[in-house]
Amino acid sequence: METFSLRDVPKEALYVGLAGVVPYLATSISTVYLAYDINYAFHNGEGLLLSGETAEALLHIIEPIQLGYGASIISFLGAIHWGLEWAAFGGHQGYKRYAIGVFATAFAWPTLLLDAEIGLIAQFLAFTMLYYTDARATTAGWCPPWYTVYRFVLTFIVGGSIVLSLIGRGEIADKVKKAPSPAERMRRLREGQLAQLEQEETERRTRIVTEDEEEEESEAADEDEEMSEE
């Protein structure tokens, strides 16, 4: 039992850490409820508290919030190791400890370009890998002795929240329209820009042809006029 005791965790770190997982837990609970309302509306014609359309719209708003917050937390967990390195906790480890922060950030932010389900799974893997890394770092003396238990509790809550979101989304996978991912939005934007450029180029060429034809007609009219005068 002592192995999982939070007694040695500084109260400030514990309270702030638990407060930090509240937004993640809140978005997961909201996802589950909205999924329930969408299912209810699908089978009964209208939602329990919200219409199916409203619940679906809110669900698509929550998606980037949860993914964005998750990416921020993953980056923050990596940055902690930079702070420990600057404080020389456990001695200076150099690039080995800096690399943890770099890899965490490099892995976290690209998940925002993925579909919601894939992004959540990727972040679940990131949280799990970071916990394993932190546990190893604590064993090596790079982190305070209480850090492994502290991270286990917070990672357990976040991981459970992600599983809740995935379960809720899985229940309505065939009942909602799939919101385009940021990568899909970028692709559509690029296609729209290309289409606009092609249209502008077509209009420019048409205008040039029209001007050339008008110029030729004007020259022909001038020649006819000159011949008539002669």
If you had to describe this structure to a student in words, what would you say it looks like?
The chain is mostly helical and 230 residues long. The chain contains 6 helices and no strands. The chain has helices at residues 11-44, 52-86, 95-108, 116-139, 147-171, 182-229. The N and C termini lie far apart (117 Å).
Number of DSSP E strands? 0
| Number of H/I helices | 6
Order of H and E elements: HHHHHH
Outline, from the CA principal axes? elongated
Which features would summarize this protein structure in a list?
single chain; 230 residues; 6 helices
List the helices and strands and how they pair.
Layout lengths: L10 H34 L7 H35 L8 H14 L7 H24 L7 H25 L10 H48 L1
Helix pairs in contact: 1-2, 1-5, 2-3, 2-4, 3-4, 4-5
Summarize this, please?
The protein is mainly α and 230 residues long.
